[in-house]
Amino acid sequence: MKSSVVTIPKKVSGGEELVVVRKDDFEAFRNWRKEVENALAKVQRGRREYRLRKARVVASPRELL
């Protein structure tokens, strides 16, 4: 992979540091972030339900039948 450095003037960026990445890399990162946020929300919901005793703890799936 060939990488290049791009300098963005401070007056364009408002004094902030900016990073330039390929669109494909950014799309992959954005999709990954959505998946992680979704997984963390499910974990949080599961922990809340466990704390409120709305979840059943079983040793195997056969116990659900």
Characterise this structure.
With 65 residues, this protein is mainly alpha-helical. The protein has one domain. 51% of the residues lie in helices and 0% in strands. The chain has helices spanning 10-13, 23-51. The mean pLDDT is 89.
What is the H/E string? Answer: HH
Give a count of the beta strands, DSSP E runs of length 2 or more.
0
Overall shape = elongated
Note the total helix count. 2
Oligomeric assembly? single chain
Helix content: 40-55%
Q: Report strand %.
A: under 5%
SSE layout and pairing:
Layout: H1 10-13, H2 23-51
Quick rundown:
The protein is mainly alpha-helical and 65 residues long. Helices cover 51% and strands 0% of the residues.
Which key terms come to mind for this protein?
single chain, 65 residues, mainly alpha, 0% strand, elongated
